[in-house]
Design goal:
Elements: H1 9-19, H2 21-30, H3 43-53, H4 58-70, H5 79-84, H6 87-92, H7 97-111, H8 118-122, H9 126-133, H10 141-150, H11 163-173, H12 181-188, H13 195-213
Helix pairs in contact: 1-2, 2-13, 3-7, 3-10, 9-10, 11-13
Length: 214
């Protein structure tokens, strides 16, 4: 087993190739599986990053997140630091009022132990984790699915509402329209228990598509 991910990518890819010929072609096109897990040591830090990144392109989100973290030099971002910061400081980093309120709610619920710790989450199944975190303002199912994939390395997550995955599916299977959530979930049953790996390949296919047209 790959300690970094919690599952063995080679076995996952072999399963996907055997279960879906179209996805096998995507794997061949994209190349090796290179999912990188986030290194945050707390659930709070991982979710705070996710909130800042919501609905922004990568570069803009990274710039705002860097300014946000610069407010708290030293140790990794903590809930107590966010609660102690003024609204002017947080807004000055580039946060919208909505994201500021989400971060404050996340911080308050972390301090009051309404958000499980990383150690507690490790023993929880995916759906229980989703239910335990979506009571936080600004944290929906998609955000928790990103946590499951990119921080926890869970092997069987399919974010069926994600535009990139829906677009990747349409490209892979030659569909003019994006699939509905239910249709994607039903088709994705054949990828179990490695839907995370299938999702990663569909994301990468979308990234490569413009390059292939040049």
């Amino acid at each position: 087993m790959n300690v970094e991910l919690g599952f063995e990518p080679t076995a996952a890819i072999e399963h996907l190739r055997e279960s879906d010929a179209a996805l096998a072609r995507v794997i061949e096109t994209v190349g090796p599986f290179r999912l990188q897990r986030l290194a945050t040591s707390t659930i709070f830090a991982a979710l705070a990053r996710a909130i800042v990144y919501q609905q922004l392109n990568g570069k803009a989100a990274a710039a705002i997140f860097a300014r946000f973290c610069a407010l708290f030099p030293g140790a990794e971002l903590s809930a107590e630091q966010v609660l102690a910061a003024s609204e002017d400081e947080l807004r000055g980093a580039g946060l919208s009022r909505s994201k500021l309120l989400s971060l404050r709610d996340l911080a308050a619920k972390t301090v009051s132990h309404k958000v499980p710790t990383l150690a507690e989450i490790q023993s929880m199944d995916d759906e229980t984790i989703i239910k335990s975190l979506t009571h936080v303002r600004g944290i929906g199912r998609w955000t928790v699915e990103m946590l499951l994939i990119f921080r926890l390395g869970r092997p069987d997550v399919l974010p069926a509402d994600d535009y990139g995955i829906r677009k990747g599916f349409a490209l892979a299977y030659g569909h003019a329209e994006l699939p509905a959530r239910k249709a994607l979930e039903e088709y994705g049953l054949r990828w179990r228990p490695y839907r995370t790996v299938a999702s990663w390949y569909l994301w990468r296919l979308v990234e490569q598509a413009p390059l292939q047209k040049q």
